[in-house]
Amino acid sequence: MTDLTRLTAAELAERLTAREVTSVEATQAHLDRIDAVEPAVHAFLHVADTEALATAADVDARRAAGEELHPLAGVPIAVKDVVVTRGLPTTAGSRILEGWVPPYDATLVERIKAAGLPILGKTNMDEFAMGSSTEHSGYGNTHNPWDLERIPGGSGGGSAAAVAAYEAPLAIGTDTGGSIRQPAAVTGTVGVKPTYGSVSRYGLVALASSLDQAGPCTRTVLDSALLHELIGGHDPRDSTSLTDPATGYVAAAREGAAGDLRGVRVGVIRELQGEGYQPGVIARFEESLDALRTAGADIVEVSCPSFAYALAAYYLILPAEASSNLAKFDGMRFGLRVEPSEGPVTAERVMAATRGQGFGDEVKRRIILGTYALSAGYYDAYYGSAQKVRTLIQRDFAAAFEQTDVLVSPTAPTTAFKLGEKLDDPLAMYLNDVATIPANLAGVPGMSLPNGLSDDGLPVGFQILAPAREDARLYRVGAALEALLETSWEGPLLGRAPELAGGAA
């Protein structure tokens, strides 16, 4: 019998539609997989088995009654714990929200539920999405299914690990500076950051409101396209929401899978390679460029000089916005409340005690940075200057896209590093996002897809960037490269499970 957890979302959807398998069977298979590997991986903070099976049973009954359903109806999905879910805990990976059960759903969760996708549970993450390794979660580390002693990326390591470990065929992540794409790169999965505003932010626990964007985590480009079309589109409850319909992504992926890229201009970003990039990462990148040439793409080098300042600008803009957004967690209205052990119980002392105990070190570090950058006398010098650099980065993108259809680079400079290896060096940790941050500062869409294994046997990611509102280009080029590389490496795309401790795979 076919192992349902090894099917892609598209394959599983086809079998469900043909009534060759039921959603209850598919959902139970993934819940069984979660039971088997979670002690080793720890991708989930909460498993919603009862709710998922109830949704699956409802979908099966509606399908049996002849009701016309969404193409993904009955396909299980996991949701990053920064996305609000009614009736299920939402902690954003923080002790300060421990036990909080929201009274409403995020817009993208509403759309997932309306389409009939059973939600398997909420995935682990760096606290409030601050981190590149999922080591800053208030609830323990997530482990990379390829090597359990290594990080799964961050902040959305739980979603990426769940997909890589065959615990879920689909997952939702959020990307503020690479938190979908970098985990995808180090776990051998596909991750997409849509154009800013094309997927509603209503119901996301905000980190940096001008940068945050939800998107798909999957094992294939087509699966990401299917999920992207489901969750995307205008939402009047999000003031930054674009009015563009979320269409054309699936068609672009199917077109790209034919492997014909004649006439497509691919720009290689000079500043996102070279020093600091692992030799195996560069080798796989060059091989992927050769594959794109074989498909007829025109490969050119472009320069985006302001990208050299993206990391510095980002780590002023993000902490500043985080300092403002996280002010609401004060121990007064919801979540954790800690009263001082002695002395008067005042609002100020309760707030200090709650935030001191409830926030982790990385969150405190960024709140301090952001508050300083916004303080009187420093606003123009730091936050204001960073926003000017952001404008220069946007101009670099605009100039590059005048010469090209898409831009490409390695997704991350290295493969997954060992747990604990960079915890004492925040700058070394931040450098993992050097290639992904520019897209968030400019609001353009980006994709990471696996393009082989480095010399250390770990997955490598290939990043594709497109102009704002041209997300379909990601899917065409990404699907073409995926098809060209599909037989050249033994990753999850070929149904081979990553190694897990104790023979759990």
Automatic annotation (TrEMBL):
One of its GO terms (biological process) is translation. It comes from the Bacteria. GO terms for molecular function: ATP binding; glutaminyl-tRNA synthase (glutamine-hydrolyzing) activity; hydrolase activity; transferase activity. It catalyses: L-glutamyl-tRNA(Gln) + L-glutamine + ATP + H2O = L-glutaminyl-tRNA(Gln) + L-glutamate + ADP + phosphate + H(+). Residues 25-474 form the Amidase domain. The active site is at K80, S155, S179. PROSITE patterns: AMIDASES. One of its GO terms (cellular component) is glutamyl-tRNA(Gln) amidotransferase complex. Belongs to the amidase family. GatA subfamily. HAMAP family: GatA (MF_00120). PANTHER family: GLUTAMYL-TRNA(GLN) AMIDOTRANSFERASE SUBUNIT A, TRANSAMIDASE. Allows the formation of correctly charged Gln-tRNA(Gln) through the transamidation of misacylated Glu-tRNA(Gln) in organisms which lack glutaminyl-tRNA synthetase. The reaction takes place in the presence of glutamine and ATP through an activated gamma-phospho-Glu-tRNA(Gln). This is Glutamyl-tRNA(Gln) amidotransferase subunit A. It comes from Cellulomonas flavigena (strain ATCC 482 / DSM 20109 / BCRC 11376 / JCM 18109 / NBRC 3775 / NCIMB 8073 / NRS 134). The gene is gatA.
